[in-house]
Amino acid sequence: MAIAARLSEGLERRAGRPTYGGGVLLLLALCFFGAATNTMAGWLYALSGTILGLLAIAAVAPRRALAGLQVQRGGIEPVAVGERLTLELTVANPSAHPKQLLQARDGVPVALGPPAQAAIERVPARGTYCWRYTLVPQQRGIYRWHAVRLRSATPLGLFWACRDWALPVRAIVHPPVLPLARCPLLDSLGQAAGSRIRRDRAYRTDPEGVFKGIRPYRRGDPVRLIHWRTSARYGELRVRELETPPQTREVTISLDGTARWPASTFELAASAAASLYCYAHRRQFDVWLWLPETGLVRGKQRVLAALAAAQPQALAEASWPQGPLIWLTPAATGTDGPTGSQRIRFAASEAEAPPPFHGPVVTPARSLQAALESR
């Protein structure tokens, strides 16, 4: 069967693969020709020749229908699990004759969805045909494929011919992002961190900012900033130069890289990490994501792509990030991460969530959004 499949594939790519009807006609033409050779009947020769001529036209026409066509692929936006993933292919016909009765196939990975195919009735001369279809991915990941195939059996449907295009594409399916209305765990970290003002030893604080030095007066400077004693000494107006350093609230969201994650629990943790990052980003935190395989990552699109590719793995040791940390772990005991970390526990069942654990506990029976929004 494998040899027959490879032979059929090779014929369709290089010349033309006869359909069942084409094979029957070819066998019938050979039978008529054999009978004509034995009987020397002219009408049998004419009949077999007519059938063979028809088969020759049917074998050449599909290759001509595919010649000159151009295929382009549109961009793909990242989507979450369960959302609609829209893909677009454009078939261009630069020739002066229309192309008819084509079949398009996109080699979508099996994990992303069934192979997509569409019937193209007509591509106008010097025109285009846009094929747009949607998938609803059910599994997180980064999917790559490149094969696009056009097939044709025009005009009689007796021979199939195909042509392949290599159009690499990458589809990012990231974990679902929950619309958190609040997150007390993150909010408490922000309040504890407060506004961090970096002060140099040579500076002294001022009610309006950090005192940096004295400089000559420039037109437009507020009168309240004039330093009169220094101005009297130099005989010209001098003003205080103030600096207000940026106020930041730093936090890092991290997945425990030293624990063994059950597959279903890890999917919940990935969704929690994406939701926490987007919530912190909306609240103007200086937020990072830390994963064992990528290290520190920031930027919404990069974070979602990293979470789409993340896989559960247990490392012997890991270099923990510094600073305030939201620590996502399946372990009830063991490492808590850096000092000052807040933990979110992901338990496989209610029995694995002991009461002494401090912090939110996520179980299959409890809504993830409710756990993240709880105090």
Structural summary, described in words:
This protein is α/β, with parallel strands linked by helices. It folds into 3 domains: 1-174, Immunoglobulin-like, CATH 2.60.40; 197-243, no CATH class; 250-373. Helix content is 30%, strand content 30%. The protein is elongated. Mean pLDDT is 83; it is low at 193-207.
Question: Which key features would you list for this structure?
Answer:
30% helix; 6-stranded mixed beta sheet; 375 residues; elongated; alpha/beta; Immunoglobulin-like; single chain
| Element string (H = helix, E = strand) | HEHHEEEEEEEEHEEHEEHEEHEEEH
Low-confidence stretches: 193-207
**How many helix segments?**
8
Q: Strand tally, please?
A: 18
Q: What helical percentage do the residues reach? A: 25-40%
Find the structural class using helix and strand composition: alpha/beta
* CATH architecture annotation name of the largest domain: Sandwich
Radius of gyration: 35 Å
Beginning-to-end CA distance, first to last residue: 62 Å
- What is the CATH third-level topology name of the largest domain? Immunoglobulin-like
CATH class of the largest domain: Mainly Beta
**Percent of residues in beta strands?**
25-35%
Quaternary structure state of the chains depicted: single chain
Largest sheet: 6 strands, mixed
Number of domains: 3
Average pLDDT value?
A: 83
Write out the CATH superfamily name of the largest domain: Immunoglobulins
- Principal-axis shape equals elongated
